[in-house]
Design goal:
Strands 1-5-6-7-4-3-2 form a 7-stranded antiparallel beta sheet. Strand 2 and strand 3 form a beta hairpin. The C terminus is likely disordered. It has one domain. Helix content is 23%, strand content 26%. It contains 4 helices and 7 strands, in the order E-E-E-E-E-E-E-H-H-H-H. The chain is an alpha+beta fold. It is globular and about 45 Å long.
Length: 141
Amino acid sequence: MAIRTKIKKDSLGLYTVCGGYISRPFFGTQFEEGDTVNTHHFGGSINAGVTLPDRKETHNFMKGGIFEYWRTTGISNTHYKLRKFNKDYEGLFGSKYDNFDDYLRLQAEWYRKQYPEREKTFIEFNKGFIREGLLKKILDC
């Protein structure tokens, strides 16, 4: 089931929530901060789909939909929201970090590097995503 949300930006770049997890466009994106999107987390994987909310043909994430592959980062939306209030990173995450930004950066880096053999496929897949009838240049994320 697709969820409607917005693209946001933090110290690491663009992100959105897919299936309750913070997801990032490690394979390039045509989206920008503030865009309203539909998202889907492919359960049992670290893959997520992000697409336009106003084009019916893009909404089928399982068969024939037009979307971008993003990747979850192992950080739940709840943990992300609580980062400002919880300073005990050892208790929250099971390992000691100097601050939440360190944790965020290390998690994103680890998830970005998973399944390197699929990176080329996902980059090509994302290049095929059509926004408003025109292909925009794929950004280096």
